[in-house]
Amino acid sequence: MSGSVPEEFTAIGVHDFDKWLEPKEFTYKPRPPRPYDVDIKIECCGICGSDIHAANGDWGRPYAPVAVGHEIIGEVVRVGDGVEKLRVGDRVGVGAQCDSCGECIRCSNHHENNCKKNVGTYFGLYEDVGLPTQGGYANYFRANEKFMFKIPDSLESKYAASLMCGGITGFRPLMTAGVKKGTRVGVSGIGGIGHMSILFAKALGAEVTAISRNHKKEELAKQLGADHYIATSDEDFEVKNADSLDVIVNTGSSLTGGNLDKVLQLLVPFGQFISITAPPLNEKMTITPMVLLANNVSVSGSAIGSPADIEYMLKVAAEHDIKPWIEEVPISESNVSTAWKRMEDGDVKFRFVLTDYNKCFK
Length: 362
Ligand code: ZN
Ligand code: ZN
Description:
Elements: E1 9-13, E2 24-28, E3 37-47, H1 49-55, E4 72-79, E5 91-94, E6 97-99, H2 105-108, E7 119-120, E8 125-126, E9 131-132, E10 140-144, E11 149-150, H3 157-176, E12 184-188, H4 192-203, E13 207-212, H5 218-224, E14 228-231, H6 237-240, E15 245-250, H7 259-264, E16 267-275, H8 289-295, E17 298-301, H9 307-319, E18 326-330, H10 333-344, E19 351-355, H11 357-360
Parallel strand pairs: 12-13, 12-15, 13-14, 15-16, 16-17, 18-19
Antiparallel strand pairs: 1-2, 3-4, 3-10, 3-19, 4-5, 5-11, 6-7, 8-9
Helix pairs in contact: 3-4, 3-9
One zinc ion is lined by residues 48, 50, 70, 96, 165.
């Protein structure tokens, strides 16, 4: 069941982390295919905030050249003999994870996303062959079918792309908290992931409060469907809005400097603060234990989602016609550079999606 797939894949990526804004084309040999591996021809790929952290060296410099991109949509062009759920011609998505050990207690309990041997779609390592992974700024991608997901017909590829990492990341905490009609959900940080949390929370029937540092994003939050808005720069915001939320999804940057103590007071007792941000490793959250105790709130983290979570998220997105706010960018070395620079400057509402792969990779 082999289609024609080149021996080497062509990608655009970082060659020198000191010149990360000058990505260049390169070719690489994908890992030798396993029976359960699937090859896809990429149609489009979202630009995630993680791409910027990885490309600019925030998360270290494990290898170069490296192609980032883990919001991939493509068409299945080859399946191994052991592949069960996918067929040539299927339209599928791949997120931030492309493999896990499949054997540990976490994998056995369907928490593959928390597997200690999880393999990132980029900046990952296939230990069996000693090969690093390359992401979705490329013509083809090869991975374990378990981490590839059929896209429902009603979801357009350009919207589905951003859902594969940003979407599941923003949606999983809502699942954790059992958000349903009437749940009072706060979304802290109105950006790439936060805006998708708002869209999903509204789709689930929640009453949504956008939380931001100042009032600059108030109009945008309303357009996204948020019912209320809290600016943490306002004096006594935690007193005026005390007990107004059942759950807070934190997608915003640093909550250091004592601010978190105040934000936690927005929650009712047994409320949950769930954080999905991945700031540089030297950044710490500061919480006064007495605040946890006095309010009976919990603070937790959430990393992307398991394969089952991703399938459920795509179903919900299709049912509710979730459309992330995106800007399409035809993929090329110079356009990737410009988009990365604009991401770094916060100049996007709210997500870029690289398109026109056929024109770039002839
Ligand atoms: Zn595992
Ligand atoms: Zn991501």
